[in-house]
Amino acid sequence: MGILVIGELRKGDLRKVTLNAVTAAKILSEKTGLPYDIALLGSSIDGVIDAAKKLEARNVLVVDKPELENYLAETYADVIKKIVDEKGEKYVIATATTFGKDLLPRVAAFIGAGMASDIIEIVDGENFRRPVYAGSAIASAKINTERKVISIRGVAFEAASPGDSDSPVEKLDIQPETKGKIYVGLEETKSERPELTEAQYVISGGRGIKSAENFKILEELADLLGAAIGASRAAVDAGWVPNDWQVGQTGKIVAPQLYIAAGISGAIQHIAGMKDSKVIVAINKDPEAPIFQVADYGIVADLFKVVPELTEKLGKIKQERGG
Amino acid sequence: MKILVTVKRVPDPEARVKLKEDGSGIDTTNVKFVVNPFDEIAVEEGLRKKEKHGGEVVVVAIGPSECTEQIRTALAMGADRGILVETEKALDSDTIARILVKVIQEEEPDIVLMGKQAVDDDSNQAGQLLAAYLGWPQATFASKVDISEDLKKVTIVREVDGGLETVEVELPAIITADLRLNEPRYASLPGIMKARSKPLKIVKAEELGIDITPKVELLKLEAPPERKGGIIVKEIDELIEKLDKEAKVLPF
Predict the structure, then answer these.
(1) What angle do CA A103, B42, A245 make, to 5 degrees?
(2) Which of A151, A162, B85, B195 lies at a 20 to 30 A Cα distance from A177?
(3) A269 interaction partners in chain B (CB closer than 8 Å)
(4) What is the pTM of this model?
């Protein structure tokens, strides 16, 4: 019996989000007395195994097959069900990324498990707390099935640090079956910046930015702070920035040290995605903008004046301090 | 083609949520109920597909009798007929999926469109669970859906972390709608009038011959931790001072 953490791979690497799931697994392990295993699915993934071995898992379970090269829910869920059955796992856990959200419910159905999504707290082996109504309330959910599936809100659990464990690796000979779906391709949003959900600094732009071109004014500030750039739904809908820059209830959930919202009014759905940031700064021309209600520091002014000036002044300080 | 779309009755997402004192749920006094925004997008997509490929759009809701309001909204938009699986019982995503299996076994649609998540529960599970129970492929978080001429395959663009992913699925399949799939139409006045006489079948959930016990129980609702109130600063220098000395969040 154990807890199965599903590792998320991207371009031959273990995504950092898996480390948040490992922390959750450790907490669950403490509460239930069950050990955790890490499952890695993919094709030619030997390079990832070393990283996974350092995460203090009981076992690193590997299914390395060409059919698993590109993630497909149908293929992966089938393989995971087989692992769960073979190893007698009681819990399946992964981070609620688009991968986790797409995959885990399918796994839950196959293994007869109830599933709690996007959990922020593990109370005990059956009880979990999770945000609902766009984070306006926290629900206490009890899973009543023997097997349980949970997806975790990444930012609610610290990323586990690799230790010096050397977990045993088991390569499982499970033959994946693909049916009914073909992976065609990915139009990737390329960026040198940190991932939104991992960044310690985030600068987001909203409707007030007014154009795709104007988003550039956030870039210098982002460079200074080593920040990721996010956006409100309005900016994405308008086509100014890519879809995966959207911060909000149904987009990315972020909780950086510092979140700067420029030209964002602060709709409930946007706030849902950033209100656990440590410090929130809001820049908006409209003194009535709801964003000021969650901001620690608000400045009622034109962002086209504030952002460049802020950038300039912070740039000077950074230089003075040899940063 | 037969297109089946699900609609969930949810409290207006623009309204402030008030919790009941005892934490047993939300206070629904004076709360307006609407079709889950993502389901509205799914209905719209169903209508567009019907307009392009012919067929009918069947709308399904599961819940108390008031859900007929949301079915009528979809019918007013242009859906052809509705089905309410009526129950007062608390449901979880899994029960929803298993009830839908029954409806789908009866209706035999070529394609099922659902919203990716309900904005009250935010679970984002029902579509995926349903696909699994049916043994059908799933395409979640769809921002573009194109059905092949021969009506056998669908090409879907999905909004994922990292960008836009394209997949191709064989029908029948479950597709869940994301925000940017389309912009739903408003129901026209003639549409609203016509909706009144479109067929709306009501069946009782308890009579479907399945166990409708939820796997996940909602025990209570609590308010989230409140953020400490903030301040308005007048000058950028003041902002920098605060970030540096008070909040201590500057990385240099």
Answers:
(1) 60
(2) A151
(3) 13, 119
(4) 0.95
